[in-house]
Amino acid sequence: MSRPAIAIARAIFPQVVERLQSHFDVVTNQQDTLLSGPELAAFARGKAGLLCTGSERIDPALLAACPDLKICANMAVGYNNFDLDAMTAARVLATNTPDVLTETTADFGFALLMAAARRVTESEHFLRAGQWTRWSYDMFAGQDVHGSTLGIIGMGRIGQGIARRGALGFGMRVIYHNRSRLDPALEADCQAQYVSKEELLRTADHVVLVVPYSAASHHTIGAAELAMMKPTAVLVNIARGGIVDDVALAQALRERRIAAAGLDVFEGEPQVHPDLLALSNVVLTPHIASASVPTRLAMANLAADNLIDFLVHGRPRTALNAQALGLA
Ligand code: DGY
After folding, report:
1. 76 alpha carbon to ligand 1 midpoint, in Å?
2. Domain residues of the chain, as ranges?
3. Residues 87, 92, 95, CA angle at the centre, nearest 5°?
4. Pick from 4, 51, 2: which is nearest to 24 by CA?
5. Which end of the chain has a smaller Cβ tally under 10 Å, C or N?
6. How many A from CA of 138 to the centre of ligand 1?
7. CB of 222 sitting under 6 A from ligand 1
8. pLDDT category of residue 328 using cuts at 50, 70 and 90
9. How confident is the model at residue 277 (pLDDT cuts 50, 70, 90)?
């Protein structure tokens, strides 16, 4: 019996490629060549499944060029690279990788918060540049994290993980804003209090963004919102580029209208706005919040599970449009 054919758009763990090869005819891109839209379409043409990452856009042009496609398995929890309506119209199942990256990503939110508030990377650059010739009382004095008020915008699983870390580990008062309020038991478990976005921005000592990207969440933080924040506040974005207006943020940081920022995601990444690159009070990382070895392996395996479960057993696993396709 012929086996389904799948394409893996990017380099992934060899053991996961081997797992997939035991079920499918597989074309790989282990050299990790970056494929343009038409190149990706040519790569995926004639395949029933595609394993992709957040860097690959699944849009109407690709779907039209790949009529045999039945499933796109994203190796990411965020799926703003998917045109979900177009996928549903083309009867292509869309899957992502929730849960497996929650704690690792929440850890990284705290890593960026701590690094920005306590000026870790800025002081390290100073030391490496040979500028440390003597100690002084205010050298790289930053902001405290413990005991402060933490504001979280976006209270999904990762936001909840950050809330627990803040409340239990750092003795923080946690406030949050979300499209919908959590049920009281979950709020109590996270020790988090629901407030309006404006109250959060005015009250929080530090703000962490974990909201998914959509047209509605574009520029959740712009000049007006930055103006509401405390001058001692730190802003952390581990959600998606486009949630923050990077130009407005660079201006607020340059004018010290907020103290610092920690950013893992950017508008137009992998390009980073030169205004941000020029500033010392921002910690910049290349979209690595979920990048621990065990978590990236778990993400790759979950994307593979999605392909196997659907193409071999006919069962959707962590699917985004199974209901819309009448499969759930
Ligand atoms: C995710 O899973 O959405 C992370 O941002 C990695 O892309």
Report:
1. 4
2. 5-98+293-311, 102-284
3. 90
4. 4
5. N
6. 37
7. no
8. confident
9. very high
Listed in sequence order, the residues at least 6 apart from 141 whose beta carbon sits closer than 8 Å to its beta carbon are 119
Is 59 buried (19+), middle (13-18) or exposed (0-12) by CB count in 10 A? middle
Report the top-level CATH class of 102-284.
Answer: alpha beta
Q: Return the CATH architecture of domain 5-98+293-311.
A: 3-Layer(aba) Sandwich (3.40)
pLDDT in tens, 63-76: 999 999 999 999 99
**Which tokens go with 107?**
């850890």
Say if residues 318 and 101 touch (Cβ distance below 8 Å): no
Q: Is the CB of 54 under 6 A from ligand 1?
A: yes
240 among known catalytic residues: yes
Digit-coded pLDDT (tens) for 208-259 = 999 999 999 999 999 999 999 999 999 999 999 999 999 999 999 999 999 9
Domain 102-284 in the same topology as domain 5-98+293-311: yes
Q: Torsions phi, psi of 177, nearest 5?
A: -130, 140
Quick check: 313 pLDDT over 70? Answer: yes
Q: Which of 105, 158, 243, 290 to mutate to test the pocket of ligand 1 (most atoms within 8 A of CB)?
A: 290
Q: Report the separation in Å between the CA atom of 302 and the middle of ligand 1, taken as the mean of its atom positions.
A: 13
Q: Is 35 a pocket residue for ligand 1 (Cβ < 6 Å)?
A: no
Burial class of residue 171, CB neighbours in 10 A (0-12, 13-18, 19+): exposed
**Alpha carbon distance 143, 170 (integer Å):** 14
Digit-coded pLDDT (tens) for 34-59: 999 999 999 999 999 999 999 999 99
Residue-wise pLDDT tens digits, 119-140: 999 999 999 999 999 999 999 9
Nearest CA to ligand 1 atom 1: 76
